[in-house]
Amino acid sequence: MVGMLLVQAQSLLTYPPRHQLATDLAPQLQAVLPQAIVRAFNGQLIISAADEATLTQARQLLQALDQRSKMLRISVRQSELSATRQWQVGVDGVLRWPGESELSLNANAEQNRQQRNLAQTLSVVEGGEAMISLGLQRFIPQLTFRYRPGYQVQSYGGQWQSVDNGFYAQANTLGERVRVRLHPYSATIGRDGVVQQQQAYSEVEGRLGEWLPVGETRQEASSDRRRINGVDQQETQASYVIWLKVEVASAN
C-alpha cells in the first residue's frame, strides 16, 4: 500500500504598516479575506494564501486601510410615532312598555397622533467607540425622618435615577464605504427598583454619508369592548426607528 502526501504551496506576504497598528489591521483584513490566513507578529502583518491573486487583493486593501486615522462625524436620528383611534357607539334613552319610548343613537370618534424626532451628532477618531445615549430617567420619591428630643421631622423629597439606553458605535472606512460595529446596551428599571441590563452585538455597512437603519420596532394593538347599550373600539399603532450616518469630518 503506497501512501501519497500532497502539500499545497502557500504564497506569503509580509507587510510593515506605516500608519495603523498591525493588531488593528489584522482582524479587518481577515474579515474581508476569509480565504487567507492573516497574523500580526512583531509589528508586521503576515498573510498567507493559496494563490497570488488573493495576495494582490490583500495589497490593494492594505493601501486603503493603512491610512492616517480620520476624524469621523456620526449623526444619529430617532423617530418615534404613536397613533390611537377610538370609536364609541351607544344607545341612550328610556324604554317604556306600554307607552312611548325615547331612544337616541350616539356615535363618537377620536384620533390622537404624536411624533417625536431627536437628532444628535458627535465626532470620533476612526476605529474609536462613540457612545450614543438614548437615556431614560425616573424620579424616585423618598420620605425620611429626623428624630429630635421630644419630636420628629418628616422630610419629603427624592432623586432622579438615570438608566442609560443606547449603543456604542465603532466605524471604519474602506474607500467610499463604511462598516459600523454596534454594541447596543439596554438598562431598564424593574418593579423592585433594580436596574436590569441587556446587551447585543451587530454590524451595518453602507456608503459614507448614507443614512443606515440600525434599529426598528413596530407595534399594533386593538380592543373591542361590548356593552349592553353600545360598543367601544380602539386601535393603537406605534413605531420607533433609529438611523445612523457616518461622514468624514472636514479638516480645519
Characterize this entry briefly:
The chain has 252 residues and is mainly beta. It has helices at residues 22-32, 52-65, and strands spanning 11-15, 37-41, 44-49, 71-94, 102-125, 129-133, 136-148, 151-163, 166-174, 177-189, 195-199, 202-207, 212-227, 230-248.
Which parts are unreliable, with pLDDT below 50 for 5 consecutive residues or more? 1-7
Structural class: mainly beta
Termini gap: 74 Å
SSE order, one letter for each helix or strand:
EHEEHEEEEEEEEEEE
What is the helix fraction of residues, given as a range? Answer: under 10%
Quaternary status of these chains? single chain
Mean pLDDT, to the nearest integer, reads: 78
What is the approximate shape?
elongated
Structure description:
By secondary structure, the chain is mainly β. Helix content is 10%, strand content 65%. It contains two helices and 14 strands. It has helices at 22-32, 52-65; strands at 11-15, 37-41, 44-49, 71-94, 102-125, 129-133, 136-148, 151-163, 166-174, 177-189, 195-199, 202-207, 212-227, 230-248. The strands form four sheets. Strands 6, 9, 10, 11 and 12 form a five-stranded antiparallel beta sheet that branches. A hairpin with a 2-residue loop joins strand 9 (166-174) and strand 10. It is elongated, with a radius of gyration of 31 Å. The N and C termini lie far apart (74 Å). The model is unreliable at 1-7 (pLDDT under 50).
